[in-house]
Universal stress protein UspE
Amino acid sequence: MNAYKNILVVADPLQDHQPALSRAVHLAEKSDNVRITVFLAIYDFSYEMTSMLSSEERQAMRRGVIQQREEWLKDIVRPHTSAGLDIEIIVVWHNRPYEAIIAEVYSQHHDLLIKATHQHDKIGSVIFTPTDWHLLRKCPCPVLLVKEHSWPENGKILACVNLAAENDTHDALNDKIIHEAKSVAELLCAEVNLVNAFPATPVNITIELPEFDPATYTDAVRGHHLTTMKALRQQHGIDEDKTHVIEGLPEDVIPKVAEELDAELVILGTTGRTGLSAVFIGNTAEHTIDSLNCDLLALKPDGYISPLDPNQ
């Protein structure tokens, strides 16, 4: 993480306390020459519906709202700029915040996006996808979703790896996740742990095939994952007692292990699934967010191309 020099912070328009900014400042204080941009996309549909106003008057009203928000953010960042940090403020008028955020990432080549996240309504998340989910799927740079959880010295980082990977892309993503975890750990004097969830025996198989032995099947799957984890931890120099291979769904296993470790940060990969498959299937990262009581850093595989890439 010490490679991040150009951080984009998404401001929370509903509160003066900005956890995302606090996290960015924490990182900046541990590195050199870090530039922080605090970004806010605002929109009020009522301003567009006022037919009694001319286009120029509506523009003036929008400029007034933007200026008001800029002054508000200046007050928030002043203690940090006074301490010598390089912080820029950008406020834009846009009705789709995630599009404005990703456009800013591309425009200014930000290498880390930090945003505070809140509990989502499970049903509403299917119908109205939260900005967090759009960013996880479509943001080209790493996304750090922040909750109210401190980053103490000598804490613990939980790196989530996929040991059922069957192609080079997933293997490379596992390596990327672990390298990132070790980088964060070095910066924060933290401990790296690895976690992998392997699937339970499918119930329908035991029903349809009476001669099927679920215990033997489970042992074989567990053995494969343990062997693969051993090779991975040895490759990256991680002790055996810092690895966790557990039966269950990733969205259940990861938060459970994170809570047991009192991890300050969970790091995982997301392939950026979009469209109907994302609505009905979802991504592990998205299912995991609401169950975590710590920060989540989501990484894309190398070569990922965002559907919002302006060059496409």
The first helix runs from residue 19 to 29. Residues 124-128, 276-281 have pLDDT under 50 and may be disordered.
